[in-house]
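Hi R.,

As promised on Friday, here is the backbone we talked about, encoded as structure tokens. Could you run it through your design pipeline when you get a chance and send me back a sequence?
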């Protein structure tokens, strides 16, 4: 549930629709527990933006015993940490107070910029105003929150728009040093949306965007692509350095038609390019201690001396 009406979104539901619901704690907690059992280190809390503005949403929250999404999210973050998995929150634009409140309970946070261009795809989407999204990213920098952002390629923007967006992201990172990764995500049309017949970006466009991204961004920023949406092999050759998260437990709820690749198959496809697991907070931010005492012990348990994921005894035996 979300206040925005993005023309490409197949994820949004309105209160009253048969499949519109708020996940209850008794549904979420087993997923967190099973995530830890299967070796996951990150829980991604992602949902619509300021759903409190959607009629009927507050009633659903109240039935769970919460007065705001933030209040419920804080409970879920605390619960995740206690269970042994690190939260990463992506919840749309936020003000400084909200970011400040969530920071101690998150290893990292994120917000897709998508584009600095004014697009038809974002009509009736007050939260997609570029200046508002850039304000959130900037505030996260001031608070030293390890951050994720990115572009959604193929929603009506031009190549020069992508260049401008990347240059602004690079400038924000040079000022605050907080953007650990930039996602280059290809638009995929969803049935039943206003853009269901809109053409997808070509592979050449994505390759070009990844190349531009690597050229424009400072070297300490990762370039991420989604391996369940596009074959990453050619993109790695053009500068992609990160393949995001792959869940052994849940589907990609934003792109449910796109199955996660099997890790072994992905490694086989990449050949000599070896995969190395990281936490939701990148190694350089672990070394700089850009995290709170609340999650410091868990980060210490999960990370090795270089700041990457510590191998378990089980995985060492298997290797």
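Update: got your reply. Pasting your designed sequence below so it's all in one thread:
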């Amino acid at each position: 549930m979300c206040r925005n009406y993005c023309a490409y979104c197949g994820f949004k539901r309105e209160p009253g629709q048969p499949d519109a619901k708020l996940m209850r704690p008794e549904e979420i907690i087993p997923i967190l527990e099973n995530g830890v059992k299967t070796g996951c280190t990150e829980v991604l809390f992602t949902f619509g933006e300021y759903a409190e503005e959607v009629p009927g949403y507050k009633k659903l929250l109240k039935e769970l015993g919460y007065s705001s999404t933030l209040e419920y999210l804080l409970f879920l973050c605390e619960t995740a940490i206690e269970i042994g998995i690190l939260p990463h929150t992506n919840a749309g634009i936020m003000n400084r107070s909200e970011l400040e409140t969530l920071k101690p309970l998150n290893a990292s946070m994120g917000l897709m910029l998508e584009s600095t261009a004014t697009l038809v795809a974002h009509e009736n989407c007050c939260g997609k105003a570029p200046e508002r999204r850039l304000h959130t990213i900037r505030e996260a920098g001031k608070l030293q929150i390890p951050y994720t952002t990115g572009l959604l390629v193929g929603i009506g923007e031009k190549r020069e728009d992508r260049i401008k967006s990347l240059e602004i992201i690079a400038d924000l990172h040079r000022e605050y040093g907080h953007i650990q990764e930039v996602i280059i995500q290809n638009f995929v049309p969803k049935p039943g949306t206003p853009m269901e017949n809109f053409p997808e970006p070509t592979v050449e466009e994505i390759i070009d965007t990844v190349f531009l991204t690597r050229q424009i961004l400072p070297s300490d920023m990762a370039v991420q692509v989604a391996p369940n949406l596009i074959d990453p092999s050619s993109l790695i050759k053009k500068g992609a350095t990160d393949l995001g998260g792959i869940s052994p437990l849940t589907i990609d709820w934003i792109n449910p038609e796109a199955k996660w690749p099997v890790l072994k198959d992905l490694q086989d496809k990449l050949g000599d390019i070896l995969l190395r697991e990281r936490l939701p907070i990148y190694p350089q931010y672990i070394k700089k201690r850009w995290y709170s005492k609340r999650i410091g012990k868990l980060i210490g348990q999960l990370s090795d001396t270089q700041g990457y994921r510590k191998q378990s005894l089980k995985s060492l035996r298997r290797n």
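One thing I noticed while checking it: The radius of gyration is 19 Å.

Thanks again,
M.
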